[in-house]
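To make this tangible, we now present a fold written out as tokens:
***
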Amino acid sequence: MFYITEDEVDRNLKMEEVVDALQETFVHYGEGKAMASARDRLILDGTVYNTMPAIDSQLGIAGMKTYIAGKNGAKFVVVIFDQRKDELLAIIDANRLGQIRTGALPAMASRILVKGKKHNLAIIGSGFQAQTQIQGMLSQFDVDMVKVYSRNYSHAKKFADEMSRKFGVDVRAEETARSALKDITLVNSITDSNQAIFSRSDLGDEYHVNLCGGNIPMRQEAADDVLSESDLVVTEHLEQSLKESGEMIHFVKNSGGKPVELKDLVVNREKYYGKQRTVFKTMGIGLEDIATGYLLLKKMNLI
């Protein structure tokens, strides 16, 4: 059994490789060779304990992401079992792993849905997860300019300056969500907002929106009309989204919308490719974490 530290994760995981690994595991999922359960939360005495189980028989692994959050912060690990030997294979510190795969997944969905490689990008939010949102999209698209909006403009400005230096791309802070979205075709939103930050009127005639923040029902980054007036809405796990996503709950229950699950998109991409206005909602499922962990173990020559 291997124990993998945060430093080892950071040294060995590359964004482009994680994007490819996630697409591979969702192909397995769409073909019935992988499974994932919705996140389960136990809440008691100010502590939240989360489990996110999954299995990919094509890779020969089973396991879960599990984490605890309370007044002293949070601790994340990914546990991976060898399905063929019925043995514990690895425990992986997963704060950095989770950050990377959170950026990689919307990049993977976007490259399937979005026409062309040359786009401008807006990032809504400038917190811990926002950096890999930029990194993931830059790994798949030729982006000339990134605009960043945050409820705290000074934080957005500092973040934009840091990302410009890190990635060598023009990254600009904007004072309003509307100005951040002007002339933008790719949008990644990664906030914990309880109120919609932008609406359909803030977007152009053609767009792809990745909603990556908010995994409790009272949170909502995009107004209902962003989803209801789109040509295609995709969710990575319908059961989980109807438990956790304010946008998806409203879309299905109030608008009568019919989202496509990501696993079905990945294996039937020709059916859905080329839509003009698309939305992808991600909350994270354990299948993504164990697939990323499997990639990491391969990169480290441990399997």
Summary: The mean pLDDT is 96. DSSP finds twelve helices and 15 strands in the chain. The CA atoms of residues 47 and 73 lie 10 Å apart. The longest strand covers residues 47-56.
